[in-house]
From TrEMBL:
This is Type IV secretion protein Rhs.
Amino acid sequence: GDDEKFDGHRIVFTDDVDTTQPVSPQAIRFHRQDATETEDALTQWGGVRSQQPTRVSVGTFDYKQPSLTKRTGLDTLSDQGNLPDTEAYDYAGEYYYHGYERGERLTENRLEAHESLAKRFRGSGGARQLQAGRWFELTQHPLHDLGGEEERQFLLLGVTVHAENALPVSAQLQALPGSLQPQLDAARKAHGLEDEGD
């Protein structure tokens, strides 16, 4: 397809994670990273929780339809452990929705945003195929291997890259154009200091 030929950056705004594509290769191991390993891996992985409301309610008012249900509310699905139940209530202003079904859908959008923030995962390692906006499947992790396939799939919301050269700089490197290295080498030789350590 066209995705293979694209050689740049693309940003996609979406509210449906089902439209995202996997990284390639899709599976990334939770494993040690070593020069003898033939596959990339994540070496650190853990969940980060933040308290979120267990119920989201949205209110509105329409003076032309005073019998319209003026408040919709939904409970979260995620388990927040021993934390107390809390509610986020938002009066969205007049005419925010016209009909209960629309109000319930808008409330569900807000609820999903809170659920997404309740538990996130962070990891690090040498997996070069990671790209924000795509998802991957984590394999060989003791906690996630126990669940179903969805328990091992993670959407990448952000990727930070740190890189360094793993090879020593060769002493045989040629000087870059405009470098003073040839003049320095000539001066060393003229003074009997041919080795750089002298």
